[in-house]
Amino acid sequence: MPHPVREAVEALGPWLSETRRKIHMNPELGFHEFETSRLVSESLEGWGIEVRNGLAKTGVVGLFRTGRPGPTIGIRADMDALSVQEENNVPYKSRSDGKMHACGHDAHTTMLLGTARVLAENPPLLDGVGGNVKFIFQPAEEGLAGGRAIVEEGALDDPRVDLVLAGHVFPALPVGTIGTHTGPMMASGDKFFVTLRGRSSHAAYPHHSRDPILTAGHIITALQGVVGRNVNPFDAAVVSVTQMEAGVALNVIPEEVHLRGTIRTISPEVREMVKGRVEETIRGVAAAFGVEAEIEMLTGYPSLSNHAGATALIEKAGREMLGEENVLPAPLGMGSEDFAYMVQKCPGAMFRLGIRNEERGIVHGLHSNRFDLDEDALPLGVSVFVQAVRAYLTDPQTFDSAAPARS
User: Fold this and answer.
1) 3-class SS of residue 81
2) Of all helices (H) and strands (E), which one includes residue 214?
3) Among candidate residues 274, 298, 322, the one where a domain is terminated
C-alpha cells in the first residue's frame, strides 16, 4: 500500500520544482530577502497557517496548530543568496547580476514551504496527535548571523519550541540519500584581520625598510604550526590565511600589509586556545622583524552539535521514507552554520540531503558559480520533514529523553 506521506508529497512534485526555480531566479542577499519573504508569508497565509512577519527584518515564522495539546516542533530554512555570478546555462538562471543561490537556500525554503503545505492540506496525516509545528524562515545565514537575530527576537518562543530540525543540501551525497550524525557536526567560524605596519623604502635599499611583506610571509608559514603543534591530533582545527593586500609599486617596499583569514574549530576549549595562539604568533613574528601588528578577532558562529534525540528522529523518518540503506553517516565538515544558535536554545539536529547526480552533471560544490541540484531531492526532503513531524508529535518522549550530544 502506498505510504500516505509519499503520496501527498509526490503530488506536489511539479509545484516544488516551480517554486524552487522562482526563488532561484530572484536571489536576494542577507536581510534583503523582501520578495522571498513575501512569497513565504503569502503562501503560508493561503494555507491557513498563522504568520509572524518581520522577525530579524525579513524573517517569517509560521505556526500550524493541530488544535490539540502537545509539544511544538520547529523546522528551519534559510532564505538568503550569495554574492556570486551564476555561470549555469539553465532556464532558471539567476536574473540578478552578481547574486546567486549557490548554497541551496532556494531548495531549503521550498522544502519548508512544501512541508507546511502538505500538513495544512492533509489533516489526516496528523489524526490523533496533538501539538504544533513552527516553520522558521530565517534571513542572512551567509555570515550575517540571521539565525542568532531571529532567535533573539523570539522565533523559538510563544509557543516554545521543544525540538528543532533543519536540512542542508549536500553535493557529496547522491540524490535519494541523507546523512546524519550525533554530536559535533560543523565547526565554529571565527575571522582575523591583521594590519602589519613597517617602514617603506626603495626596493633597491631594503636595509632602510622594516619589510611588512617579508614579515607577512613568515607569519603565514608560522600560523600553519598553530594547529600542527598545539592541537591534539584527535581534535579538529583549521587556520587559513585567505587574503593578502600589499604593495604600491614594483620598486617600493610598502609600509603596510593586510592579512585576513579564518579559524575553524569544534571544541570551545580548542577554539579559545587557537585564537590565542594565532594572536601570539602574529605578534611574536612581527616583533622579530621590527614590524607593528594590529589584530582584530571577529567571533563567528559557534560549532553545531546535533542532539541525540533529534538525530534519532531524523534517522527514523529517513528510514521510513527513503529506506534503511539510504540513511548514511553524514560527512562532517569544518564549515559553519548559524543553525547552531537554535540548537544552543533547544534540542535540535541538522541532516545532509543528497543532491548529486553525475549523469546530469550536478557535481559542483556549495558556493560554486556552477552549483545546481537534482530537483528529485526536493520531495524527498519534504517527506523526511513531514514524517519527522508525525513521529515526534506521536511520541515526543522517545526523542526528548535521548541523552544530549556532547560538544
Assistant:
1) coil
2) helix 212-230
3) 298
